[in-house]
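Work Package 3 (structural annotation) set out to generate three-dimensional models for the target panel prioritized at the project kickoff. During this period the team completed the workflow that converts sequence records into discrete structure tokens, so that structures can be stored uniformly alongside our sequence database. As a representative example, we reproduce one entry of 360 residues exactly as it appears in the project archive.
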Amino acid sequence: MRLSFLILFLWVSKLIFQIPGYLILNFIELLLFFSVVLMTFKNNKINKSSSLFILFTIFIIFYAVNSININIPFKVILIQIKWFVYLFVLNKLYIKFPFKIRYKKLLYTYLFIYLFERIILSIERPEWLIENNFEIVLFAFFLIQITNLKLLKNNLFVWVTFFLILLLSNSKSGIFIGSFLFCYSLINTFRNYKILYFVIFSVIIFGTVRSYILPNLDNLLMIDRIVFTQEFINDINSRNIYDIIFPNMQVEPINLSSSSPLYFYEDLFINDVAYSSLYHIMNYRLIFNFGVFGLILIYLSINCSLQKLYSKKKGRVLLFVLFLNGLSVSGINNTYWFFIIVLILNELNLKKLKEVYVIK
């Protein structure tokens, strides 16, 4: 109940006092980060590093120093390497909450928030603190934890709750993530019914095309993600093959044409200069900054960490959810991914504690 109460308290505070949600979210993130660091040093629990993680650490230090030397603002550098800070926390730090996390109650709490905002406040895109495309990742993690990626009678209400949240959110990327989780769980539960998978998968594809794509076909080019994609392709076409495959050695600005529609997002310009965060879509940003090779290595590194610290099956699914989220918003740069990391580390250390008690 403690976390549920905190979630509701922060949400009500945002509504009553009109506090920008991103300020609350950033405060929670900083507070959690320093708590994790202090707890790590207090318990002397710094983990050993893999070779790939050491390689990333050396490169990121080199990348940051080079960027500072050419007077790139620190805020810009931090935004570009935020994913590495999260990877560092996942690989090196320690946390254990003094209470048990009840994921079902958390999911039901968010359902209440979304229902209240949609029905009572008539908000078309309900949210807890910030745009719900970011929050969907957290709900997906709750679902994975509760259901263990199974479609069973005892977790049917959880699945209904999750999809109710997705429908209330009005998030197209959320529907894709939910469809993936449903299909994977279906296959994971009923392994011997291949024809059933084909039928249900076909229905989901048909429903998605019929409900979301065909009605908006005329306006497809006006969708912001399509605009970002077009601008990204234009930029990629102006670069040589080496720059596309391999990473930059420092933060690079985007070259925009004078007629680029991205000038609409003037709030994201820093000192009148545009950087890759202007693309919004995290996977594009990773390719722009670190190349296709860097993108692959980054996801491989996160996958290795999840396999080791979380679960092989659930880790792969969670990583793909992050990848899908990175095709819409910030993916592995998402603050909610940091919250998930903290929860994973907590579960890991609770598991170790139980094992110690069993041995004793």
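The two ends are 31 Å apart (CA to CA).
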